[in-house]
Amino acid sequence: MSSLPSDTSPNRVEHQHTDKGYVPVYTTAVVEQPWDAYTPVDHDVWAQLFKRQRELLVGRASDAFLAAQDAMGMTPDAIPKFEELNAILQRATGWTLVGVEGLLPELTFFEHLANRRFPVTWWIRKPEQLDYLEEPDIFHDVFGHVPLLVHPVFADYMQAYGEGGLRAARLGMIDALARLYWYTVEFGLIRDGGDLKLYGAGIVSSYGESLFAIDDPSPNRIGFDLERVMRSLYRIDDYQQNYFVIDSFEDLLQQTRDADLEPIYDRLRDQEAIDVGRLLPTDRILHAGTQAYAHGKANA
Questions:
Q1: How far apart are CA 140 and CA 133, in angstroms?
Q2: pLDDT (tens digit per residue) in 101-148
Q3: If you average pLDDT over every residue of the chain, what do you get?
Q4: Which of 15, 87, 172, 275 gets the highest tally of CB atoms within 10 A of its CB?
Q5: Residues paired with residue 61 on neighbouring β-strands, in sequence order
Q6: What letter does residue 180 receive in the DSSP assignment?
Q7: In 93-243, which residue ranges form alpha helices assigned H by DSSP?
Q8: What secondary structure letter does DSSP report for 61?
Q9: Residue 238 and residue 54: Cα distance in Å, rounded?
Q10: Would you kindly state where each structural domain of the chain is located, as residue ranges?
Q11: CATH of domain 31-299
Q12: What is the pLDDT of residues 182-235, one digit of tens each?
């Protein structure tokens, strides 16, 4: 990354709230991490989130995730420095973190991933946002996403996903690829030693969803099927009602990188998307949820 002029500070780009809900705001800027500008409050927010999540995730997150987080040298002491994380990633898998100001347009995001660059938001949430934030901040990105980039197989999956995203854009099938990302990278579960464990960044960085995804009887837990996942709608503002479970990172990579997706895309064009929380007769159901959470929200 090139250095910014000394009088330039990166922006904190957040969604805009309107009377019709929040509207995503996109940015393409690549910025230097302004580490010296973090306040004691910023570092304290990181410490609170880190300690709470790390304690909760022992026994819940996959062994691979916890080992990868240890390998990255993350601690609650201070917000990590991108340059120090990059030194570890470069040696392990050739990935590089790039600082960004907020949410990226899809093509820009795919291009970064295809070239083994992972965009990381530089700013951290406010103290009053400890339990929920609508957009990714540095805690979500660094605590949740970055560790598995040191895992060679998952690192390859992320690059393959970026390359696949660029192809999907040319074919008009970005929505299908977005669902794959959502149900794996963000909210995926994995079989681990006979148990279901967490690995998706959206879960492992969320206290509430770390409990809900594993313990709550409400959501469905379904064996991963690529075409099924690509048809499945999702919620961006609440807990998921369907979670998809992979058998291993190796299997996930094989199914996605080595598959010929164009015939799948051709079939998807003629099929309706599957509603949130719905089960199909063809699903490999590991747990049929009660959907009590969703019904309770609907009746509230």
A1: 9
A2: 878 889 999 999 999 999 999 999 999 888 877 778 999 999 999 999
A3: 90
A4: 15
A5: 198
A6: H
A7: 106-114, 138, 152-171, 174-181, 201-204, 207-215, 226-231
A8: B
A9: 22
A10: 31-299
A11: 1.10.800.10
A12: 999 999 999 998 899 999 999 999 999 999 999 999 999 999 999 999 999 998
